[in-house]
Automatic annotation (TrEMBL):
Gene3D superfamilies: Glutaredoxin
GO molecular function: oxidoreductase activity
Database matches in SUPFAM superfamilies: Thioredoxin-like
Keywords for this protein: Cytochrome c-type biogenesis, Membrane, Transmembrane, Transmembrane helix
Source superkingdom: Bacteria
One Pfam short name: Redoxin
Protein name in UniProt: TlpA family protein disulfide reductase
Annotated ranges, domain Thioredoxin: 43-187
Location of the protein in the cell: Cell envelope
Transmembrane regions listed in the UniProt entry: 12-35
Chief site of localization: other
Length: 187
């Protein structure tokens, strides 16, 4: 009898371990940046970037729109404050922005946090106040839908000077990505 009970406990342990591995796999697939999954769409001048206007949360009197930045190369970056790859890529984005903003590079960070803009502002306070200078706003359902549905984060879109999507990347941006696409699209 004890032997049967011991075998049952072992089977339960095995089932629990398999379930944990399966559930963990689903989480990793949802946030591809955790294992650096790359999906680049080199669409060139084929797809006009969906237009939007949003109010910046870290520059309260500033409205952000692609029209305003026409003639510039723009990074539209969808992120969430709870997403490790999103948090990891922000310093690199900021550094590139500071270095190239006078050359026509712009960034619009769009938070997909459901908890609202105050949670994003609190998150930004954890960075040095002078650290994240590129404008950040809250994404809404319309913007997310227009950009193909943001089901995985981070997602980044490079918009060229003519307003077309030049590249789409899902996951944490690799080193050199911004430099390559900025140079390619700033001509």
């Amino acid at each position: 009898m004890k032997n049967k009970s011991k075998q049952s406990k072992q089977w339960i342990k095995i089932v629990v371990i398999v379930f944990i591995i399966f559930a963990g796999s689903l989480v990793i697939m949802k946030i591809p940046g955790w294992f650096h999954a790359v999906k680049i769409n080199k669409s060139g001048n084929e797809t006009l970037a969906p237009q939007f206007t949003v109010k910046s949360i870290n520059y309260p009197n500033k409205y952000l729109s692609l029209k305003k930045y026409k003639g510039k190369v723009i990074l539209v970056n969808f992120f969430a404050t709870w997403c490790p790859p999103c948090r990891s890529e922000m310093p690199m984005i900021e550094k590139f922005y500071k270095t190239h903003k006078n050359e026509g590079f712009r960034v619009i960070g769009l938070s997909v946090n459901n908890s609202g803009h105050k949670s994003v502002l609190n998150f930004l306070k954890h960075f040095d106040n002078d650290y994240i200078k590129y404008p950040i706003a809250m994404a809404n359902y319309g913007i997310e839908k227009a950009y193909g549905g943001i089901n995985e984060i981070p997602q980044s879109f490079i918009i060229n000077k003519q307003g077309y999507i030049a590249a789409h990347f899902t996951g944490e941006l690799p080193p050199g990505f911004l430099n390559y696409y900025f140079k390619k699209n700033s001509k």
